[in-house]
Amino acid sequence: MNYSTDISPFFVNTIPKSGSHLLRQILLGIPDMKHDWDHHWYFEGYHYQLEEHQKRLQTLKNNECAFGHVYFSNEWYNMINQLAM
After folding, report:
1. Is residue 3 part of a domain?
2. CA 25 to chain centre
3. Do the domain assignments include residue 69?
4. Among 66, 31, 74, 17, residue whose Cα is nearest residue 50
5. CA distance 15 to 71
6. pLDDT tens digit string along 7-62?
7. Which of 28, 51, 56, 84 is most buried as measured by Cβ atoms within 10 A of its Cβ?
8. Residue 34 is part of which domain span?
9. What is the spatial distance between Cα 75 and Cα 7, in angstroms, rounded to a whole number?
10. Chain centroid to CA 57: how far?
11. Which residues face 11 on adjacent strands?
12. Looking at the 3D structure of the chain, how many domains does it have?
């Protein structure tokens, strides 16, 4: 039985100390799901890092996700929409 799926790249936003690592383990239980700690660490959403974060998020492939603890901002809102996440 083949459980392979193609899931568009996505961004998971959580609150610190709310179970982010448990959520990551659950997501990685999905067949073929990946999260690369080296390239897609926890994004913290500082405005001066927006350009760098966008570049890194653009490198996500199908079945990959990135995590962050990002407070709402129009800049992040627009970037996530632009990246269709």
Report:
1. no
2. 14
3. no
4. 74
5. 9
6. 999 999 998 889 988 998 999 998 899 888 776 567 788 889 899 999 999 999 99
7. 56
8. 9-60
9. 25
10. 7
11. 66
12. 1
